[in-house]
Amino acid sequence: MIAVLIASVAGAGLGAYHLGRDGQHAIPDSLMGTLWPQPRVLGEFALIDHDGAEFGLQQLRGQWTLVFFGYTSCPDICPSTMLTLRGVSAALGETGAAQPQVVLVSVDPQRDSADKLGEYVGYFDPDFRGVTGAPEQLYALALQIGAMYELLPADENGSYEVAHSASIFLVDPQARMYAAFSPPLQSDQIAKKLVAIAHYYEKS
């Protein structure tokens, strides 16, 4: 099935400017291509986190959230991206900037039990949150955010992989799709952009 779903570094990202979302606030050049042209308000969805708690729209409100779609059996992109996200947290911690919530959305609920998901995200950072749920709920969230994934055919042993987006998505404190970070992903650059995005958000 194919599911097409598609702060302290003061002055970060300052340079040439473009008209902002409301026609008044300027967007730094460094954030062009990262910020969405217009924030997209997310609708309701119902997932479960690795502790068995409900995870929906309410859990996205009131804080910045970095969202990555993947799965624990992923051989390369997922562990690499999770390490990047750990590096982002570390870089922000060094500057004293606020830490965003980090969420791995598993698109492989058949294999990713709560225990397995919790162990996986905890390996990278005990504060990271793993969530998953029914396929239709995963689709609903991914569709809104603009991610994509596809379960590939299983081999003779029943083993399969999941093709999925490699981007990291940023949801703002109003539970709106706000920005996306596309590969190649570098922790320090993402951290600097997050500080600049928060600064821009406060002014817009």
Overall description:
The chain is globular and about 55 Å long. With 204 residues, the protein is of the alpha+beta class. 38% of the residues are buried. Strand 2 (17-19) and strand 3 (26-28) form a beta hairpin. It contains four helices and 13 strands. Helix 1 (77-95) packs across helix 4 (187-203). The model is unreliable at 1-19 (pLDDT under 50). The chain starts with a strand and ends with a helix. The protein has an eight-stranded mixed sheet with strand order 4-13-12-7-8-9-5-6, sandwiched between helices. A three-stranded antiparallel sheet has the order 1-10-11.
What are the low-pLDDT stretches, counting only 5+ consecutive residues below 50? 1-19
CATH architecture: 3-Layer(aba) Sandwich
Helix and strand content put the structural class at alpha+beta
CATH-assigned fold name: Glutaredoxin
Number of DSSP strand runs = 13
Q: What is the straight-line distance between the termini?
A: 40 Å
Proportion in helices: 25-40%
What is the fourth-level CATH superfamily? Glutaredoxin
Strand order of the largest sheet: 4-13-12-7-8-9-5-6
Largest sheet: 8 strands, mixed
Number of domains: 1
What's the overall geometry? globular
How much is the radius of gyration in Å? Answer: 17 Å
Strand content: 25-35%
CATH class call: Alpha Beta
Average of per-residue pLDDT values: 88
Structure annotation, total helices: 4
H/E element order: EEEEEEEHEHEHEEEEH
